[in-house]
Design brief:
The complex is a heterotrimer. Chain A has helices spanning about 5-25, 30-50, 50-75, 90-110, 130-140, 145-165. Chain A is mainly α. The N and C termini of chain A lie far apart (about 65 Å). The chains are: A mainly alpha, B mainly alpha, C mainly alpha.
Chain lengths: ~170, ~400, ~100
């Protein structure tokens, strides 16, 4: 076992534990904080994969904005801060079975595929992924159209969210 | 290799030789030396932090025509140590119904979010934690952890005042993050890189002369991000007692306090690095690494001084005014300035230095003038409306 | 070196946990938390395939950026809907928002 394997296993195990806590803990604000832990773990996985830009963007966008938004929403939609009643619905056994089935299906699908045990080639030392990504996102030959559509989507979501949540008197 | 130019590398090589002599494997020796470097940096920061407590108390008392700490040691210099001993022997309380794990985690995260910022700060040409090519984004990411620590402290304390303070503080921090990030993109445009080291290297002309308006907007956004007066709604003493950290006592409060001071100093240093050339000062940094560190710390202290000056001069602004100021004035101006700067940069790319600097400076002045005129026009209209309603009320 | 399968199994597990949350939680916000986990699992897959394929083909990272934008849009609209529903019906439990079933 090499050092990066150990780091990966620690990051993956803590991410999965945090994710499991997100879906099972009874206290919703705790769940939001566990979500932050899971997203951090995913950022570490991105860093292990040499996607440093995505790792930092993950922290900025998810931890800095989305998770805080969740915490605000949890606090705005309750009369007192405690959670009452069951947090899981009646069909939780069926749901657990279904998600276990999805995982088993994906697992056996992966087992049958040849490319799965492939290891990565050494990362080219002179390769600047950030510059490459920035170029690709604004180049007409690559992804400028999806990028612009995504920004239009964000503006539409912003306007829509303000309109929906606005208190019409 | 000259010791004055690159002291850390020589020390590391020397240590590496000793460890190799003891039969330590190369990998572990490197890990050990890396950890020693981190401890050295954090120790330096902690010493600066202790000094900052004294500086802050002395300066505020001078602003308020007082003498300040003057009993313990010469000029009260030992006062911070007395403070630390007091904080350490205080009772460590946890409020009833608090969420213990999050309550204890919040001050640690608050301090951590400041300390990890210094990983990308170039102290000298050869002394730098890590040269990330996304340094500017990293700063915002570390700020996100600071935001998280505040909402954690506010919620887990189980106190209405602290929750209110955390809400206000987080709303302000999230809003002012946008103009701050936009202003950090302007040095990125000039330097052609997001790396902090590359931005410092590119400043043959200080970026202050290329973008004076960006310097001011960055300072305003940084003060709001720090939660200092006039934007200290999060811990408004007179209405929320102390905001999000009201329930903390002893060293846990001390960590919030020290984190806040160091955060202000850190933003002073980022201000110096992004717009005032960092460690560069007429080639002084090439003489010795120690001189470069001294130059950077000096510039950072000037930035810290200005932040303190603003804090102890201005009054607190109401929260809705604060957010309206950000969303309706600062953010549009920041976006306009970014677009103008990118356009001018492309237009003047091939021109000589004097034309480039002059064009950039004039375009900044123009943007500032137009936006101030627009703001004045809007303010006049607003005042007329208020006066009309007031006279109508009076007539009734 | 880490084989590709580790990343794929990790992301499959993360996806399944998110799916479990979406299927079983009663609170609307908790369901959105599960959706976030599923989107992140997809992102891990995209970046892993970028790293293990040709790194000069940047498509994996570009798609991950688009997924970030979509996730941000989804959360803002979703939470706005939740708050709007809470104002009208005074609840955020998914089972109790059943006015369309009448």
């Amino acid at each position: 076992m090499t050092v990066d394997q150990i780091i990966f296993l620690i990051a993956a195990a803590s991410t999965l534990f945090a994710a499991f806590s997100v879906v099972t803990t009874g206290n919703l604000i705790r769940a939001a904080f566990w979500l932050i832990g899971a997203l951090f773990g995913v950022a570490v996985i991105f860093a292990i994969l040499h996607a440093s830009f995505l790792a930092v963007v993950q922290v900025v966008v998810y931890v800095g904005a989305i998770a805080i938004l969740f915490i605000f929403a949890v606090m705005l939609t309750r009369k007192d801060m405690r959670d009452q009643g069951a947090q899981l619905n009646r069909n939780w056994k069926f749901g657990a079975f279904l998600s276990a089935l999805v995982f088993a299906g994906l697992f056996f699908l992966l087992r049958g595929w040849g490319g799965v045990s492939k290891t990565a080639a050494a990362f080219p030392s002179d390769f600047d992924a950030v510059a490459e990504l920035g170029g690709a996102l604004v180049s007409p030959d690559a992804y400028v159209l999806p990028f612009e559509v995504a920004s239009v989507l964000l503006v539409a979501a912003l306007v829509g969210a303000v309109y929906v949540a606005y208190n019409h008197k | 290799m000259d010791f004055l130019k690159d002291p850390l590398q020589i020390a590391a090589n020397w240590l590496f030789g000793i460890l190799a002599g003891w039969g330590v494997a190369d990998l572990w020796a490197q890990v050990l030396i890396g950890f020693l470097g981190i401890f050295l940096l954090i120790a330096l920061l902690m010493v600066v932090d202790i000094l900052l407590v004294w500086v802050e108390r002395k300066v505020v008392s001078r602003f308020q025509s007082r003498i300040g700490p003057n009993r313990v040691g010469p000029f009260g210099l030992i006062q911070p140590f007395a403070d630390i001993i007091k904080l350490l022997i205080k009772e460590d309380t946890t409020p009833e119904g608090a969420d213990r794990a999050l309550y204890n985690l919040a001050p640690v995260l608050s301090m951590m979010s400041v300390l990890i910022l210094w990983a990308v700060v170039p102290l000298a040409p050869t002394i730098l934690g890590v040269d990330l090519n996304i340094g500017v984004l990293y700063i915002i990411g570390a700020g996100a952890i600071g935001t998280l620590s505040i909402i954690m402290a506010g919620w887990s304390s189980n106190n209405k005042y602290s929750l209110l303070g955390a809400f206000r503080e987080v709303a302000v921090m999230l809003s002012f993050e946008i103009p701050m990030l936009t202003m950090m993109l302007i040095p990125t445009i000039f330097a052609g890189s997001m790396g902090i080291a590359a931005i410092t290297q590119a400043q043959d002309v200080w970026f202050f002369f290329l973008a004076p308006l960006a310097v001011i907007i960055f300072l305003i956004a940084a003060i709001a991000e720090l939660g200092r007066a006039p934007f200290d709604m999060g811990e408004a003493e007179s209405e929320l007692i102390s905001g999000y950290n009201i329930e903390y006592s002893g060293m846990k409060f001390g960590m919030f306090y020290a984190g806040e001071l160091l955060h202000a100093f850190t933003f002073g240093s980022f201000w110096a690095i992004l717009f005032f050339g960092g460690y560069r000062f007429f080639g002084l940094e090439k003489v010795s690494a120690f001189l470069a560190i001294a130059v950077l710390l000096f510039k950072a202290f000037i930035g810290y001084w200005i932040i303190m000056w603003v804090k102890y001069t201005l009054l607190r602004i109401r929260i809705d005014h604060m957010l309206i100021f950000n969303w309706k004035f600062l953010t549009p101006v920041a976006f306009t300035l970014l677009m103008v700067t990118a356009f001018m940069n492309a237009l003047l790319a091939a021109s000589p230095t004097w034309l480039y600097v002059g064009g950039m400076f004039l375009s900044n002045v123009l943007v500032a003038w137009i936006s101030l005129e627009l703001a004045r026009f809007a303010a006049h209209k607003e005042r007329e409306k208020t006066e009309n309603t007031l006279t109508a009320d009076a007539r009734r | 070196m880490i084989p590709l399968s580790w990343y794929l199994i990790f992301s499959a597990a993360l996806f399944s946990i998110g799916l479990f949350g979406v299927l079983t939680r009663r609170n609307l916000i908790a369901i959105l938390l599960g959706v976030e986990l599923m989107l992140n699992a997809v992102n891990v897959n995209l970046v892993a395939f970028w790293r293990y394929g040709d790194v000069h083909n940047i498509a994996g990272q570009a798609f991950a950026i688009i997924v970030f934008a979509v996730a941000a849009a989804e959360v803002s609209v979703g939470l706005a809907l939740v708050i709007s529903v809470y104002r009208k019906r005074n609840t955020v439990i998914a089972d109790e928002i059943d006015i369309l079933k009448w």
